Amino acid sequence: MTDADLTPPIAAGTYRGGGGQGLHPIWLDETAAWRIGDAYAAAPNASFSVYSARHGLHYIVDEDAVGRVGVHRHRAGGWEMLASVETGGGAPCHVALNPAETLLAVANYAGGSVSVIRLDPGTGLPDGAAQTHANCGSGPDAERQEGPHAHWVGFSPDGRWLYQTDLGTDEVLAFPFDATGTLEPPFVAYAAPPGSGPRHLVLHPHIAKRAYLVSEMASTLTTLDRGRDGTFTGPVIRSTLPDAWRGHSIVAHVAINAAGTRLYVSNRGHDSIAVFALDAEGVPTLLEHVATGGEYPRFFLLLEDRGMIVVAHEKSQTMTALAIDAEGRLAPTGVALGVPGVGYVLEVAPGGG
User: Fold this and answer.
1) How does DSSP classify residue 353?
2) Would the pTM count as exceeding 0.85?
3) Of these four, 32, 91, 114, 284, which has the most CB atoms within 10 Å of its CB?
4) How high is the pLDDT of residue 8?
5) Kind of pairing, strands 10-14 and 342-347?
6) 350: exposed, middle or buried (C-beta count within 10 Å: 0-12, 13-18, 19+)?
7) From the CB of residue 291, how many other CB atoms can be counted at a distance below 10 Å?
8) pLDDT 10s digits, 283-323
9) Rounded distance between C-alpha atoms, residue 228 and residue 215, angstroms
10) Rounded alpha-carbon distances, angstroms, from residue 16 to 31, 72, 151, 272
């Protein structure tokens, strides 16, 4: 059996600063041993991406000083770049598509800004320069919060709002959107506790009002109520760390399973994934902490159809696999692979997308 027979593979995004060479295809064969392929060099510093099912395209950030997003297509024979566009801000670290897949939003970490790029409805390629809005302000941590640091972007399911988390100003911003796709001035949808450093937000897949914010510097999970006016209220804050933990740790990634019954958060320093059960109202209850098998789990990818989570560790430069059981709990598998500069994992879409 060849690698092509085992598609869809996953791919590992790597940082040049850590020795990365680009985007590596990774296969999991029948013996549960990861195999790594040659790097696709046209996708350097690939720290996040989003896939358009409408166009069969992957939009992958190049988290570098001059921020860019590449538009890439994957076929059985490998990757090809179709376009590359500047984001208008440095170190782009997150991207999102609106529900119609006609707008691409980008969070520029170093630039402290959000950009929106129009996409041609027929081809999915960038149509014109990015619209960009730079936030202003700072937080109490002089080292980490000297200025704004956009870290995540996401559209509401109805496309009316574009949300942004800002680690530097301890805010979640909301941009109103209309049918023209014009980036309007934002307002503060939620003011997080000072010094907490909001990193990522995730909306519950089945409960319209429920949202969850993970704050990197405070290592917390905040449950929020999302209003029709775009605001978030009723915060309930929980730690993502064990009560007895006293070492240094910061939050990285958060994800919810397709059923909306389990939420996972990775802790860098404690080097674990915290597993929360979500009840019928979306209220989380901590179930367990599971060691990820590497140092500094920056990102993890849920592969529910394969019954596993794949974790990328930025300090140990390894990828590991954790098994997901029927209750959504995790267990080590012993699978590990060294990948220089690894910081992200994406799933190559079925059908050659």
Assistant:
1) -
2) yes
3) 114
4) 47
5) antiparallel
6) exposed
7) 14
8) 999 999 999 999 999 999 999 999 999 999 999 999 999 99
9) 23
10) 31, 19, 20, 25
